[in-house]
Predict the 3D structure of the following.
Amino acid sequence: TSVSSSSSNLINVSNGGNVRYHSSMAAATTSEVKEVPSEKSSSAPIEAPRKYHFFQNVEYVQRPNEQGKVAIIRFDNPDKAVNTISFAMKDEAKLLWDSEIHNDTDVSAVVFSSGKPMGFIAGADIGDIKSIEDKSELTGIIEDGLKFFQKMKSKGVPLVCAINGPALGGGLEWALWCDYRVCSDAAQTKLGLPEVKLGLLPGFGGTQNLHPLVGLQEALGMMLQGKEVRAKKAKKIGLVDMVVAPQSVEKVAIDSAFALANKSLKIPKKKKSWMNWALEDTSIGRNLIFKKTKEMVDKNTGGAQNYPSPYKIMDCVQHGLKHSSGDEKYKFEREQFAQLADTTQAKGLIGIFEGMTSLKKHNFGETSQPIQNVAVLGAGLMGAGIAQVTAEKGYTTLLKDKDDAGIARGEAYIHENWGKKVKRKRMTKYQHNINTSNIVPLTDDSVSWRKHFGQADLVIEAVFEDLNLKRKIVADMEAVTPSHCIFATNTSAIPIRDIAEGAQRPENIIGMHYFSPVPQMPLLEIIPHEGTADHAKAAACVVGTKQGKTCIAVKDVPGFYVNRCLGPFLVEVSALIRDGASLEALDKAMKNFGMPVGPITLADEVGVDVTSKVATFLSNADLGVRMEGGDVSVMSNMIEKGWLGKKAGQGFYTYNGKKKTINADVKAYIQQYVKKDLNLKEEEIQNRIVSRFVNEAVKCLEDGIIADPVVGDIGLVFGTGFAPFTGGPFRYLDAYGADKYVGMMEGFAAQYGPQFEPCQLLKDHAASGKKFHSD
């Protein structure tokens, strides 16, 4: 019910007797309030000028028979879609607290909420961290923020958080300083400390304040993996105290604040099982936890030289357990944070994060009309995977194959994947049913398939790599689809202009190159040919982004970008086999470099036949001497023997369930390709493979195949797993030094041949000292 006073229209009295007013009403008192019946209220309260940039004006709630008032502080940065913690926001928070809350004895509790329709605080402002050249200065800045949180606590009133939407990083750390947390059950609500993914650690007390709430094992899992937990799980582990509907979050938080203030609500202590007590609260148990955790981190990261942040997180937690009282634990934490912020690994991972964020936007304008119906041709692994990620995002998805058997295999693959998600509670049964209903299975014999395709806005073909077949499909589709329909080909290497040749609507033809397995691989190459219209490019980007992919636009050349870089990489692997490197040594060397899998395992995972086809195609393309130095026929001969990789049970490895061992027959077979065992050290194996990879990436930039180093870094990290902690090939070169790298390659060229000759752009950067990234 709206009411007025002599000073403002900003006091509200709810039907339940609550009195609400904002901090702009310095003189407002309850005695000034006169209730007006709601049916006579004709206008909303007049908004007072904002006093703060990062916060809405503080609102106060008073209730009859309650001592004091509850202050509601809402985060709300009008310049951004999400709230973040920046240096400026920290300073304003201190000002707000000191001027309005700390010395006001009538404030009996504080509720922290958000003015955004969805979202609490998404984390810290990475730009602020990057802006500090001397990272040691971060310790003082973090200490200042920590003192603010400690001052909040020192007021001695209940602090309650109302969380609707993401509370991540610094956002969750803010919530951890509070006494009580209420969150919504909205699908967008997630809580986590993902700093490890940026090569950092939680710096505002997160390594110290999380485990007392959720337990040591759960806390380590969240911080070391950057795991985000949903509302139900958050309540189960004790991270939040209540889960309610989104529309009730702030009201329940206010109710809880009053109840905590008047002592009618007490926070129950989380019960711990005997086993968890023995593990988490005894020195022997803790030692066992940290021992096992370190073993897991060693296995997943390859060691602190690649990913130092997980080790620093464990150090912080252990240090805090040994110094549980006082500020020493927080001092140690911020010192470790500053050290990590200055590492090349953090800079590389932050570069990946920022690149991924920037690529969510495209500059191709608008689509010719909204995309609602997407058709996928081919229900094999690629087609079924594309259909899965399309249906999951709400598109009506037409999945067509030649016969019922093909469609059945595709649907079985999709439902198996969704079944696993339901089992792991990553998808509800309701959502499973919705997704299933979005897929319309069709075959050549389906009477209605032409009618369905007559409503398609986008067709994605995922059939065999055969140019004539793809051209026939284009003609067939143009005969049945509407004139605005975009035709996308999922070819991995065939030039798009060749596929578009002879088409009626070549301006609507574009490449959308997905990577296998589609549901897991985050990259999508968008490949327009010279005549592709902007609205077609926009449509491909819109659909790809909605599918959860990071889209990169690349030039229409053989192999596009990612596979073009893989070509020299694969040739060099065969050259190393010729020089005596064992299959095990090749995989181990590249795993130790930081790749998720070695080149031999990669060939098996992708398929020896597919890998061979790409390598052979590029050997006959326009790369010239850069595809020389090895013999990729080693794989074509394997195909004849049926050693096709993991899908066939045998490739370079033999597969028995989840176990794999080097295929003894293949090991004997490749000996015929060995000319001389050079007894190569691991570092030389790494440098020979990686230099061929990196040089081709720079050559792609030189030739305009990619727009900039950001696209180049994201493409190889997301498309091939290029050691993420390096930030990608271009950041790797910046850290290594282009002059030093050119010197190494020229040494290889003198020893092994001209395939190692560095490209001109790399030489130019070496001569000038210029970096590929300016930050």
